[in-house]
Amino acid sequence: MGGCVVIPAVASRSDGAQAREKLLQAALRLFAAKGFERTSIREIAQAAGTNVSAIGYYFGDKAGLYRVAFTEPMGEACSAATYQFPLDGVPLAPLMLGFFTEFLAPLRQGEAVQLVMRLHFREMVEPTGLWAEMIENEIKPQHEALTRLLAHEFGLTAPDDDLTRLVFAIFGMAIHFFVGQEVVNDIAPKILSAPEAIDRLAERLAGFSVAMVESERARRQAAATCPESAGR
Question: What is the pTM of this model?
Fold first, then answer.
């Protein structure tokens, strides 16, 4: 969800950047409000103050524009190498800080990310296939990378149920600031108010996650010495 997404190649010109951005913002608002099927390219062009042919030039077609609106505000494409954590000799704390810094980076886009999240929610109930792509190409690799990292921390050759619970819990801390962004802004607006605030949030979540890992490590060690407590 956060950090890296797959973005298609699109035509671009330096003198057309503003027109492309207007089309993208208009499409994002309309797609988030009405969905893919009920949004026409004509009303997108009208809302952006441009002609329909510009959509073809910059995005190929309506589906291409929808794909870019669905992904682009969340960040640029990352290679598979992004998900390969360096493990040996590297402390957990800086690894987690790097993870959360990358994951939370899209929050710097402010309102655009709120609109993207609305669009993602709509995509879940009116699927076009992009949500399934995001799960496969972004969410699963991130989850698998964090699982490998923590399995290494605990000396596991394969993840067990408690490790999987921990991985979901750590992801959940970060995901809440995307899906609950409007709630956070209403209750505690300073938390996401500026890039520096988001950097601080990444630092704190990294610290919280390390504490969660250490708590789980202690639980596992206690279970190893007192087997009857293993299921608690």
Answer: 0.81
